[in-house]
Design brief:
Blueprint lengths: L3 H5 L4 H9 L6 E2 L11 H12 L12 H15 L5 E5 L1 H13 L5 E6 L3 H9 L3 E6 L8 H5 L6 E7 L11 H14 L2 E5 L22 E6 L12 E5 L1 H12 L7 H12 L9 H15 L13 E5 L5 H10 L2 E2 L1 E2 L9 E5 L4 H15 L3
Parallel strand pairs: 1-10, 3-4, 3-5, 5-6, 6-7
Antiparallel strand pairs: 2-8, 7-8, 9-12, 11-12
Helix pairs in contact: 3-10, 4-10, 5-6, 5-9, 11-13
Bound molecules: pyridoxal-5'-phosphate.
The site of pyridoxal-5'-phosphate has 13 residues, from helix 5.
């Protein structure tokens, strides 16, 4: 009954952790990949009012005009870029799925980082294509020469993610320029996942990849910057030919992103709350808290962005360490969910301060227990 395609895809390891977590009483949860603030009230109100006012039917495939206009202005203001075209997607996840379906044929290869965000590995499989990993261990720096050695005649695309999940790495402008050169030499499509671009902690963000290389599709959305994870609003912008193909695929798959949530998302682009809906400084502080809590017993590269630390397991595999941590009520995600290796675990510091402190102390004690 089940296709080879579906059988070849692996269920998300994050779900397995959530299932395990459901058995833990009073968990200290450092496993969640979403902000710990709620959607700002004005945007909740905007969505509710839009529903009451009857904005409840199918929306245009590419997004409602209000959001498309707000996005064009935002992309120009924020990145100094005028994309050929854009499409509103069901979160960045929708953009990732549509872009890979539109760009990859069976047998094609796409270069993705290792460690990677989970769907970078699974979606190429869905397209019959192959994810080829560029390794960024141990410090998450990208060596463009190493990436270039992986290019074959089947390579069609290069995926770049900054700031990155699960490593928290903020990729530097020099690294991005190196990747842009590789893409240019081999005429690759670059899919640039910039969903954490409100969370660059050390100085200004590097330019959007689209500013460095024209054959770039930028993916972004409202899940992380506005905590709208459940609303499923994202966008993709770039070459018209690719966006057109994504539109065609969207017509028969996601069909529409709920218009009330699109309207509220458009409002958030016009509001002046500051990065991370005004919570940026809190996250800066939480990074210090998390790094300070882990430093006594763990090896890790201090994250420059997003809200994760990818920590080396002090003994055993990442899975063994994370499993023991669950027994002590601390929920993290084993590194093999995000990697071909099982040597690390991920914590999210999008958590209350008290949880970060208590969980940090328990993890340090566990690290020293063997
Ligand atoms: C790097 C990265 N890309 C995309 C997504 C998916 O975001 P969305 O909720 O917009 O689908 C996530 C969510 O965790 C992520 O970490």
């Amino acid at each position: 009954m089940i296709s080879n395609r579906a059988n070849a895809m692996q269920a998300s390891g994050i779900r397995k952790v959530f299932d395990l977590a459901a058995t833990v009483k009073d968990p200290l949860n450092l496993s969640i990949g979403q902000p710990d603030f709620d959607v700002p009230m004005p945007f909740k109100r905007a969505a509710a009012e839009a529903i009451v006012a009857g904005r409840n039917s199918y929306a245009p495939t590419g997004g409602i005009p209000e959001l498309r206009k707000a996005l064009a202005a935002h992309i120009d203001r924020r990145y100094g870029w005028k994309p050929e075209d854009l499409i509103v997607t069901a979160g960045v996840s929708g953009g990732l799925a549509l872009s890979m379906l539109a760009a990859l044929d069976p047998g094609d290869e796409i270069l993705i980082p290792d460690p990677y965000f989970v769907s970078y590995k699974q979606l190429p499989t869905m397209c019959g294509a192959k994810a080829v990993f560029y390794d960024i261990y141990p410090d998450w720096r990208i060596d463009a020469a190493k990436v270039e050695r992986l290019v074959t005649p089947r390579t069609r695309a290069l995926l770049v993610n900054t700031p990155a999940n699960p490593t928290g790495a903020a990729v530097s402008e020099a690294e991005l320029r190196g990747l842009a050169e590789v893409a240019r030499r081999h005429d690759l499509l670059v899919i640039s996942d910039e969903v954490y671009d409100d969370f660059y902690f050390d100085g200004p963000a590097p330019p959007s990849f689209a500013r460095l290389y024209p054959k770039t599709l930028v993916l972004n959305g409202f899940s992380k910057s506005q905590a709208m994870t459940g609303w499923r609003v994202g966008w993709a912008a770039g070459p018209r030919e690719l966006v057109d193909a994504m539109m065609k695929l969207q017509q028969f798959t996601f069909v529409t992103v709920p218009p009330a949530f699109q309207l509220a998302a458009a409002d958030s682009l016009g509001a002046k709350l500051g990065p991370a809906a005004g919570h940026f400084d809190e996250y800066l502080r939480k990074r210090e808290l998390a790094c300070g809590a882990l430093a006594p017993a763990f090896e890790f590269t201090r994250p420059g962005g997003a809200f994760y630390v990818f920590v080396k397991a002090p003994w055993g595999t990442g899975t063994e360490f994370a499993t023991e941590a669950v027994k002590r009520r601390v929920l993290t995600i084993p590194g093999n969910v995000f990697s071909e290796r099982d040597t690390h675990f991920r914590i999210s510091f999008a958590a209350p301060d008290a949880v970060l402190k208590e969980a940090g102390a328990i993890l340090c004690e566990l690290a020293r227990s063997r």
